[in-house]
Design goal:
Residues 1-18 form the signal peptide. It is built from nine helices and 27 strands. By secondary structure, it is of the alpha+beta class. Helix 1 packs parallel to helix 2 (133-151) and helix 3 (249-262) crosses helix 4. It starts with a strand and ends in a 7-residue tail after the last helix.
Length: 487
């Protein structure tokens, strides 16, 4: 069942790339808010929280606001592993109160750095808890970034394009030779193995595709001064940080490199670089086909993320020089709340989890495989009391003939491709980890293969969720880009 929420904002009929008039001047503004926590705050991004001991680089909420004279859009990228559903609505509500922007016009997405605190609160899976102090702080700072970006609005020109950075994207799910299987913490035999570093001799082929492209949206003032540049790259975090370090990962490095490249001396307001995560749920930076080969480079801490960011920055710089800038483009926004069945443990799975926790002595938990089974047994018991349904907030934005599609999941590459192929827009950026968090979104085909990303409590929505979500996003894009619909 689909509930139609605050839906769309469209301009009066106008051609997509019109020249500005006294009535419709295109404007853009950008700003950042520091969201770095105090040291000692627990970091998330693994199976167990760990306390922060050092701030290597600050975390930010980076915001770009666009205004076509009638409709305003805000795109905010936050340095966190996820943007949970628990703070999505409070954040949008505060933004509307402080700026007047309706929720469907505001896209908030996480980068997926694994070196930041949890925004979910005190429990990985419990729902409905009151916001903690860090959650409240981030909600306020995100709203501040939007308000400040709106304060910085000025006449601007906008353009977009795409390039390729193929050397850093690899599918992390592998099928094994001769149909061999691996066992999940729930005791199920599975064909797909995630990050199979211990199974290198058994590897057959990747279980899915990758997308080498980097997508670029750039805005400049009428004098040519860079205001902001947003890139979209389909790659998980890179990692390689120090123990207990807070870091924005390669997303933050990219933003700083862009600022060094594009910011003019003493520029005020400052230039803002943003890097969003795309459909990267089954992609990371590890080339398992050539893993641990003789002569393979060994990276120092933070070195690899700098290498990835530098390569993405280099390609962005090349593509930006070829972009055609427009004086005015039409903006639009639409959103749906899609009700999905929530995956919950069966009676047998609950019983097995209870038995495991009851009969496992503490000293036995030092075993890595057993420890993981215990973690997922606890999560299964928490998931047993979840609501039967989950609300997925899906969103589409229009910028001229460019479409932006956002989902509250770690989206698999093939689903991102489905969205792009069915989109009516000439080019479509896909944002994962946006406007909530419902875990991984594998396709039904990938669910059948199993593997970490398909496990209960890691993937929250029903097995058939992805076709429903792609269908709704396509409908949203057609609604705000009706020029593409054949008569």
């Amino acid at each position: 069942m689909i509930f139609r929420t605050l839906i769309m904002a469209l301009l009066i009929p106008a051609v997509a790339q019109a020249e500005p008039t006294q009535q419709n001047v295109f404007r853009a503004g950008a700003a950042t808010s520091n969201i770095t926590p105090f040291l000692g705050t627990d970091l998330i991004g693994g199976f167990n929280p760990r306390g922060s001991t050092h701030i290597h680089d600050d975390l930010h909420a980076r915001c770009l606001v666009l205004d076509d004279g009638n409709t305003k859009l805000a795109i905010i990228i936050i340095d966190n592993v996820k943007f949970p559903t628990e703070i999505h609505l409070p954040t949008k509500k505060l933004i509307q109160q402080t700026t007047g922007l309706p929720p469907e016009n505001v896209l908030i997405a996480a980068t997926h750095t694994h070196s930041a605190p949890s925004l979910r609160g005190t429990s990985y899976l419990k729902l409905g808890e009151p916001l903690d102090e860090y959650q409240k702080f981030v909600v306020r700072r995100i709203a501040d970034s939007v308000q400040r970006a709106m304060n910085n609005l000025e006449p601007a020109r906008i353009g977009w394009g795409q390039g390729e950075v193929p050397q850093h994207v690899f599918n992390r799910r592998w099928l094994l030779k001769n149909g061999q299987t691996v066992t999940s913490p729930f005791g199920e035999e599975e064909q797909a193995a995630m990050n199979p570093g211990s199974l290198l001799k058994l590897l057959n082929k990747p279980a899915g595709p990758v997308n080498p492209k980097v997508y670029i949206l750039s805005v400049r003032s009428h004098t040519g001064r860079p205001i902001a540049l947003l890139a979209n790259y389909w790659l998980h975090y890179v990692g390689g940080v120090g123990q207990g370090h807070i870091s924005a990962d390669y997303f933050g490095v990219f933003a700083r490199q862009l600022e060094e490249l594009y910011a003019e001396p003493g520029q005020d307001p400052p230039f803002v670089g943003l890097l969003s995560n795309g459909a990267s749920g089954d992609v990371n930076n590890n080339d398992y086909a050539n893993y641990n080969q003789p002569g393979q480079k060994r990276y120092a801490r933070y070195e690899k993320m700098h290498e990835v960011a530098a390569d993405v920055t280099k390609e962005v710089k090349r593509v930006e020089k070829t972009i055609r800038y427009h004086d005015w483009v039409k903006l639009g926004a639409a959103a749906e709340t899609v009700t999905l069945k929530r995956r919950r443990p069966s009676t047998a799975q609950v019983w097995r989890a209870q038995e495991l926790l009851k009969h496992t002595p503490p000293e036995a938990q030092q075993d890595r495989d057993l420890s993981r089974r215990i973690i997922f047994a606890r999560r299964a018991l928490e998931a047993a009391v979840w609501p039967e349904t989950a609300e997925a907030y899906v969103q589409a934005l229009r910028i001229g003939d460019l479409g932006l599609a956002a989902l509250p999941f770690e989206v698999f590459v093939e689903i991102g491709f489905d969205i792009q192929q069915q989109s009516p827009c000439k080019q479509t950026f896909v944002f994962g980890l946006a406007n909530g968090d419902l875990g991984y979104l594998p396709s039904p085909r990938q669910h059948a293969l199993g593997g970490y990303e398909t496990w209960l409590t890691v993937s929250h929505a029903e097995v058939g969720a992805s076709p429903k979500l792609v269908k709704e996003l396509t409908a949203l894009l057609r609604r705000i880009y009706p020029e593409s619909v054949e008569p």
